[in-house]
Amino acid sequence: MAFTKIVGAGIQTTTDVTVRNVQAGIITATKFIGDISEATGAAAGLGTALSQVQSSPLNKIYFTNQVLSIGSTITVDPPDSSNVAYTQYAEIAVEQGYDLIIEDGDDLVPDILGLSTVTATPLSGAGGRVRADQFTNKAGTGAPTFPNGVQVTGVSTLGNTIVGGGTTQLVVTGNARITGILTIGTSSITLDGFNNQVNVGTAVTINSSGVTVTGVVTATTFSGDLTGNATGLSGTPNITVGTIGATSLNASGVVTATSFSGSGANLTGIAATTDVRTNSLVVSGVSTVAAGSSAAPSITPTGDTDTGIFFPSADTIAFAEGGSEAARIDSSGRLLVGTSTAPSSSEPQYAKLVVSGSTNGPTDYGRLALVRGEDSASMANNSGVGKITFSDNGGDQFGVIACEVDGTTSASGDAPGRLVFSTTADGASSPTERMRITSDGYLWVGTTSGGALHRLKNSAADGVNSLIIEGADEIARFGGVTSGANPSGTGTAFWIRRNGTTSRSINAAGTVNASGADYAEYMTKAGDFIIAKGDLCGVDNSGKLTNVFADSVGFLIKSTNPSYVGNDDWGFDFDDDDKGLEAARQKVDRIAFAGQVPVNVSDATPGQYIVPIETEDGGIAGIAKDEADLTLAEYMRAVGKVIAIEDDGRARIIVKVA
Q1: Does residue 612 contact residue 621 with C-beta atoms inside 8 Å?
Q2: Are 556 and 600 in the same domain?
Q3: Beta-strand relationship, 324-329 and 620-625
Q4: Is 124 strand, coil or helix?
Q5: Domain co-membership, 524 together with 595
Q6: CA angle 191, 194, 196 (to 5 degrees)
Q7: DSSP secondary structure letters along 474-491
Q8: HEC per residue, 60-121
Q9: Long-range CB contacts (< 8 A, 24+ apart) of 364-369?
Q10: Residues 526, 588: contact at Cβ < 8 Å?
Q11: 80 with 125, same domain?
């Protein structure tokens, strides 16, 4: 190296000195010539030439390393004549354990010529620290750019800060405190540290008083309690929440929930709501609904808008089915079924239940049905089917009408029944059966048994009135009979016993009229023979009828059409023995003792007498004889006098009593 001047502790020269190696503390020269590529400890300057050959163009092209590595703690402190230090290095790497300190009031500007590459060189190790009071961009007019972000593990105090660019804009893993206003975006979100509030545009303000929203809040989920007075929800078309716990909820739109719980005592404004639905609604106050109509009732079930309850007039409740009125309770408390108008006169107007028509139509019978809840085949004899009870408001029964099973029900559709009518006697506490109509149609009054007969029973004493039949006045009385003979058991239209004391059966205040023409009595026959109506017969010495002339002590004629028949005591004890009764009947015959009787004698003329004669076989016949031709004996034997001739030619006589 050639030096024009060497100044040092022991060397000074003004001539050129050529040396191979120089080891010294400080070398001061006006000029250094030659290759200094191996020189160390010197400032890098603006760059290093790519070639040390002065004639080479590469000597005029420079480079600067990308990274300036700092391996010790240093302080950047330019002299007082300047407050800016700079370097052409694009990046400064402070090694772990060391600090790069920028003196207060001074600046360090990396990449002073702006020739750095875009992408930083990845380095290993934890790195050291850069200590400075302020960081700015290279121009000193704005904020620095941290392309990979900033990790803050301590407390950061930020002034006017803009965070932007990149996918992750700001990550704070420790505490962050903003004492001023943090603006996110252009102006839409601000964090106001002075007023302790967050502003989202002009629509949302969050502070210690709560959240104020002047626009629309949209969220997939709201959780926690909604307390205080929530306002501004009126414009929201639909709010869906899991559970609302609030002392007051005002909604002008539709509130839809799977359930509402708690007291509804203070609910208001429901009158204007078109649809309120709930699984269970308990109202302790008054609920008011529209009157509605049969076509559109005011209270209806879901999906059936023409069936329900409506209120056609004051104090009236009506029920609609399929758009037509089915029943109503009118202002008098009457239940009207099948009609909207109650009877207006006579007894029906006072009825509490009026049933008009049936499912067959409004002009059909009014029908009521009392139904037992099982099939007839399952019902035993004497089981109850339906019952109507007449009682006071305490349950004391005055009367009962009941329907009961009256026989064996062999299959479904087999339903023998009886109607039983019961009343409660004076002084009694329960009803007693008074009358029944059996399944066979028999009427039993005063008895619970009677076979296949109509029966009217009154256990009155002998001679005491048991039954009185009246018209404008009394028509007939039937007295009680406790003893006395039974009438004959033969077939009859009227059967009556006699009083046990007087033996009377009938007392008539007027005449007793009959369609028959003669009075007859039963007489026993002496043998097994037949006497035809109108035939002559005899009576033997034992008082029995005979058809033998020689055995006769007197002569009689058989009744043809009697109006009264006496001595009818032969048919007793044959009520259930038809064959025995017929056998007994063959042993008697009715004989005329008075009145008019056709006699089996022809060729007679009125005024003649019918005289008995003996036939060739010993029997009895009759001939007509004039009164002038009669002997005394013939007159004595004559059975009657001819008064007319029947259409068939027979003589009709007036019976002559012997």
Answers
A1: yes
A2: yes
A3: unpaired
A4: coil
A5: yes
A6: 60
A7: EEEEEEB-SSSPPPP-S-
A8: HCEECCCEEEECCCEEECCCCCCCEEECCCCEEEECCCCEEEECCCCEEECCCCCCCCCCCC
A9: 366/338
A10: no
A11: yes
> In this structure, is residue 345 part of a structural domain?
no
Residue 557 clears pLDDT 90, i.e. is over it:
yes
Q: Does residue 619 sit in the same domain as residue 496? A: no
603 part of a folded domain: yes
The reply to whether 121 and 88 lie within a common domain is: yes
- SS3 call for 598: strand
Q: Is residue 426 part of a domain?
A: yes
The Cα 551–Cα 541 span in angstroms is 8
CA distance 153 to 168: 17
On the question of pLDDT at 384 being above 60, the answer is yes
Note whether 521 and 600 are same-domain residues: yes
Q: What are the pLDDT digits (tens) for 87-121? A: 877 788 888 888 888 888 788 888 777 766 556 56
Structural domains counted in the chain: 5
490 and 441 fall within a common domain: no
Q: Which domain holds residue 189?
A: 180-214
What average pLDDT does this structure show over 237-255? 62
Higher pLDDT, 120 or 534: 534
Q: Is the pLDDT of residue 10 over 60?
A: no
Contact between residue 233 and residue 239 where contact means Cβ atoms under 8 Å apart: yes
> What single letter denotes the amino acid at residue 516?
G
Q: In angstroms, rounded to a whole number, what is the distance separating the alpha carbons of residues 497 and 506?
A: 9
Distance (Å, whole) CA 641 – CA 25:
204
Phi, psi of 170 (to 5 degrees): -150, 125
Amino acid (1-letter code) at residue 585: R
The amino acid at 425: A
Residue 512 inside a domain? The answer is no
Q: What is the pLDDT of residues 465-510, one digit of tens each?
A: 777 888 788 777 777 776 656 676 667 777 677 777 777 778 888 8
